[in-house]
Task: structure prediction
Amino acid sequence: VTRRRLAALAGLVVVGGVALLLPVIAPDPATTNMAVFTVMYVGLATAWNIMGGYTGYISLGHAAFFGFGAYSLGLLIVHLDVAAGYGPFLLVPVAGLLTGLLAVGIGWIALRTRAATFVIVTIAFMFMLQLLAENLVTVTGGGGGFSFPYPHDWGGDFFNTPFYYAMLALAAVALAASWWIRRSKFGLGLLAIRDDEDKALAVGVPTRAFKLTAFVISACLVGMIGGVYGYYVTYIYPQFVVDPLIGISMVLMAFLGGLGTLSGPVIGALLLEPAQLEFAYHLGASRLYLVFYAGVFLIVILLLPRGIVPSVAQLARRRRLGSP
Amino acid sequence: MTLVLEAAVLGVLTGGVYALMASGLTLIFGVMRIINVGHGALVILGAYLSFALFRSLHVDPFLTLIVTMPVMFALGVLLQVVFIRPLETDREALSVLVTYATALGIEGALGYLFTTNYVQLRAWYETASFAVLGFHVTYVYVFGFLLCLAILGALFLVLYRTAFGAAVRATMLNRTAAQLVGVDVDRVAAFAFGIGVATAAAGGVVFGITNAFNPGSHYDLISRLLTIIVLGGLGSLRGAIVAALIMLVTEDVTAVLVSPVWASFAFFVILVAVLIVRPQGLYGVRVRDRL
Result:
């Protein structure tokens, strides 16, 4: 066991080192741009997994929190008159907090339902938020969009770097939260809810409070990542930032890697996001990339319904035990 | 006041179309316990099929249903057999993802074939209207409503007057028990999916005449349809029809009384209100592990 732990630690150091040094190793903007989005999805899939993977409550509406975080940060920056540069990053936790508050309200209503109904209600809330962003023209700019201040000082190759590290930090926070929850009594309660909610309640798990807490943590992380995303792309509008495709992408990545595992969402995001960006880059104009994406999606679910990490772990266990 | 009444009448007429589309969705849920997130995309696909036939043959859009409904039925059976049936574990969650993927695939394929420009089905009755008791009613809404009534009527006849319908209802009530008394649930599921998709095609024609649409229109549509079936109670046909009428009347009346931009929002407000009071929906049954 100690040897395996040592190997895991060594792996973590190598991966963490590469992640930290990436803008130095590969400073060209095309690569760092891809890295920003990939690390963003590592964070998103990990954050989604805290709710979807651990409790089994599939939310397809997390794009609502993503978009809300982006608008919150943008409005905070504009109304507090924060200059472009590093200052806006300091407001990211505030945007996350606001998203968390929203999630308390949405979760309180949505978590009155279970399974299929919960899935639908999360979708409905996402479209409700999209509509609000569009209709509250005086606040959000409506369909005309909303512009973040542009950091002119960060030119050339350097532009992506601050955003990369911001995304990396948030992904690390999400991973730390996921890791801690997985080992805590709280996490055990969440897994019990996933396996059998009524029995969990019967043995004394405060299911409602636990579900809501997981939902809010997950939404809060997604909101912070959405905030950084909004600042990075500098111009957002409702359909673009409350995008159902963003919501479903993080779900697919968690499923591909392995639902309810710590490393699964990371692996899923590292595999899928670069592929998705490649598709979109080469086939964007024809919208055929959606067909490719759907294809990947169907293959993953039909061939690997349990995800990569659990399947590999099972294989390894079988080999170790020597049984066929 | 006249405006409000006129809006209410329009709401009932468009509500019929949504009732038809939502009934297919709730039927699929009832039989298979899966949410077909691709239903909106299938409606749009049906509209595009009619559009393609209409453009090349110049026939009346409603007539194209003779071709599109059987084609869409076959597509539905195919989708069920290839993508839904193989799901063994965690069906509810995985089916959402699979049907989402089909929606994306359809959106992408339609975007490639027809571009993302908005199109609309055209017919003489699209703008022509007649007056009843001082209201102006556009013909297309009446024709669409009648078509939906006819198809819904046929659906009820099949479900309540045929052996196949009995098998479908048995499967909805208890899958295992239905299997035990000799119902071929796989066949029932495939046919039910086919029927659901065929009704999507019919809904698509009416939607395509009354709205301009593009391949991305399915998002807006599916959010409304899902809201309707949750409001009605998942798996309840009657619930879906009642909910569709409530939703569309509310929407059209809000458009007149408040503002058109807040009309769709009224939709969601009702959903939230219902969820707080009755999480199982209007006609839903609260079975713990199902909800």
Remarks:
- The radius of gyration of chain B is 19 Å.
